[in-house]
Amino acid sequence: MAQGKGPGYERWAKVYNLKQMAAALQYLREHELTDYAALSASTEAAVDRFHKLGEELRDTEAALSETTQLMGATVDYAKTRPVFDGYKAARYSKKYLAEHEAELAAYRKARATMSELLDGARLPKMDVLKKKRQELSEKKKALYAKYREAQRQMREAVAVKGNIDYLLGHTDERNKAQER
User: Fold this and answer.
1) Distance separating alpha carbons of residues 160 and 59, to the nearest angstrom
2) Distance between CA 113 and CA 72 in Å, rounded?
């Protein structure tokens, strides 16, 4: 009302606030949350689950990216290996180097990427890498579904807790939940 809103806005705001409180009470009944401590614990559990799934999703995406990079480096290495063997057979000739400089640079880059990603481990076969990438991709897809559901549940729980906090006058605790 301080911003010059009219009586229509005031009526809408009252109805909206009533609907939000009714939805909060219905949520509390459906989830059998009879006291404030149970509501707080439920909200914290929803937030923690959301963050845990987010971390797991990031780890899966990192592993998927690493596997994809390793596959690409392996393919580049296999394509440019004959050029390097020719360079070696030519006894590291400057002429050969000048003719095949781009291929040799790609070879060195692929080899460096492979040694960085493998960290001394043996290079797995391409079939194993493809299978691993497919498994990680499927895991990522399943995690995204769980992540979106956990996000929806977390938002609902935080909104209900915020409405109850407002109703009870616990505004400082509500601000802490929003900061997280």
Assistant:
1) 31
2) 9
Chunked mean pLDDT (size 10), the chain, 180 residues? 78 90 92 91 96 97 96 94 94 93 95 91 93 97 97 95 87 54
Residue 157 · residue 50 · CB < 8 Å? no
CA distance 5 to 2: 7
Pair of tokens at residue 102: 């781009």
Residue 174, pLDDT score: 43
Q: CA dihedral defined by 23, 26, 31, 35, rounded to 10 degrees?
A: 90
Contact 138, 67 (CB under 8 A): no
Report whether 66 contacts 60 (CB < 8 A).
no
Rounded to whole angstroms, how far apart are CA atoms 100 and 83?
7
The DSSP secondary-structure symbol of 123 reads: P
Residue whose pair of structure tokens reads 């149970």 in the numeric block: 38
Contact 22, 155 (CB under 8 A): no
pLDDT at position 37, please? 92
Residue 108 to residue 153: CA distance in whole angstroms? 49
Give the pLDDT score at 26: 93
